[in-house]
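Class, study these two lines:
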Amino acid sequence: MPKPILFAIDDDPTVLNSVDRDLRSRYGRDYRILPINMGKAALEYLGKLQQRNETVALFLVDQRMPEMSGTEFLAEAIKTYPQAKRVLLTAYADSQAAIDAINEARLDYYLMKPWHPPEERLYPILDELLEDWKARVRLPYEGIRIAGTLWSLASHQAKDFLTRHQIPYQWLDIEKDSSARGLVEGVSADLSKLPVIFFPDGSVLIAPDIKTLAEKVGLQTQAGLPFYDLVVIGSGPAGLAAAVYAGSEGLKCLVVEKGAPGGQAGSSPKIENYLGFPSGISGDDLARRAVSQAKRFGVEILSAQEASRIFVKEAYRIVQLADGTEISSHAVLIATGASFHTLKMPGADKLTGAGIYYGAAYTEAMNFKDQPVFVVGGANSAAQGALYLSRFASRVTVLVRGEQPAASKYLVDAMNADEKIEIMTDTDLVEVRGGDKLEQVIVRNSRTGETQTFDAPALFVFIGVRPQSQLAADLVMRDDKGYIFTGPDTMVNKQPPHGWTLERDPFLLETSVPGIFAAGDVRHGTNHRVSSAVGEGAIAYALIKEYLKTL
């Protein structure tokens, strides 16, 4: 496959040569650098590249050119290559040009000349943009293919795992695609063993468990060391924040994650109220950036590994994995977060992954294009899911138990403004029906008692939060809902908790056991917001650092 292209456009030969030199020095190995001195000539060349099925990764364009401005060029160029990243060069802080480019050409960044030294002022910016581009781009397909059926739980789990890790794949539905069915029959006579996953190297996995899939795609599943300064359980915003700080200060840190980075936030199609991202950011993008940042500081992240138990052995804190592996450390941070409540009505378990999905709007939305879907829940996650689903579904009906959604105002306003979304308040989901797949939902108005039956190929559930604290149930103090007590909440009649062995009281985010901390949605008193979880993770690390000083 030809290398992706980095386009550099500037009418000043001196500047263009400088751009060309700096781009080749850093990116010449992985990208083809194309310097052009005229905007119109560059647009003509883009047409030829498109005909040859070549890919443009980034445009680096001067704003003030004689034939057309950089903004005008980018507005035209994105019609041909909408996924390419866009950077505008200006001779000074031209905020109006940047604003125009953001509105007209969806500008990613504007950069002032001169940019030297490039190691400080150019490469960090382009590195991040190109990393984003690689995570999102759809190249001529040569990657992983997952063959299965839309109503297979195992197929859904494999898709969701790769989606949450931002690993590209092609979905092949053997019920709709005869060639896909033939492909599967060529390697497996038993069509009940799904999914079948094909890899670019010619290898095949038949109905693999998630750990096997994780190992195959190159994710780490085994700890590299027998002992760590800190083990973080969970890679949601709280866990990743703590890991980044721990790694940046030289601690040997391991993160254990049974699913995918980001926790509940990782499944959010778009978070619009997170500081520093005025255009919003998807939960998996935020998680990917945090994972990249943590790994850069030497943090190890285990995927598809569940921590099943924590116990204390002399001066050490031991984390036992579901496969029996034990990992020793000085300190442990429980950042396992919370999960959505599952439906308790008859038949719901059987239909999970076969029309009923917990979260997963990002993974399954495309499969219900031009079909009506239902969302259960009224908080931020449900609203974000509904807004994303409305981009594909013919209609999205949101079932809310209360008088109005509990989501943030900007999300409620966005749902009300979307013609494809209907919000049904004072509404309870009372029954689901279907054989091998979901077929109908029955709802009841809590005010009038009236019931209604709807045909429903898909139901996305975003109700409640259940803390994932079972691994420490026999070790640390929890409230009656399972949230972990920390700091002052562990005190009994102003006295340290039973079994506390230190002269000091527990730190703010320390549990009832010294050296074991909790942060994020699993902690008693949390407010279930991404920014709060990140803050708690940072504070937890600061307290862990103080704890380690006493050892």
About this structure: DSSP finds 16 helices and 26 strands in the chain. The chain has four domains: 5-136, 144-211, 227-339+466-549, 348-461.
